[in-house]
Give the backbone structure.
Amino acid sequence: MSELIIIAGPQAAGKTTVISRLCSECQSMSPLLFCANRKLPPIFPLQESRQIIVHRDILLGAIFMKPEQEEDIIACDLGRMDLILKHAREKRIVYLDECNIFTIAHAVAHGVKSVEKHWQAYVDRLKRLNAKVIFLDIDPEISWERRRAKYQQRLVYFPTNRHESIMRRYHEYLKRLHPLLLDVYNRLPFPKQMLNGNALGKDTVQGFVETLIGISDSFKPLHKHCPQ
């Protein structure tokens, strides 16, 4: 049966980095994951629904999203999970989804609270998808320092007299977002693990892979049969 692993955390926590590294490890048959007498399940990274809508509407960040766009993100998430569920029992695939139900926290962080009504719709689908959660946690100020340069690049699209207020909005958004993400994590009724992403590097990636092996039903048999 297929399995969905949610990779969540604040902005610039390293989610995309660890997903990319995991896919590279699988393609290269890295010793981190490979065992000669067990076969790895296919790993399929999904594009984050928030990014799909941001790119579609040429937005410059979540602070500019409107309620209807947040609803589009949720429709994308739910529809995609419904599609996966149609084939979940036929195929053994590990799907990696960056954000998923945590999009509710992102929306609430910039004032769109109406999305909370979709909580149960997410949970119901995630239960059927045998979901697991890996949360890369970083301090909001570290998130800000890692993300600030990217935010500054966007200022070219705004008049100079708005630059300071827009940067302040980005910063305040990240500070509001962190406790909301933690609240979602704590409420989720699925196997989950939190990792410290404050010092992103090889140790973080190694910890992510070890956590995946320990938390995923698809990887546990692999780990059990591999020589130590």
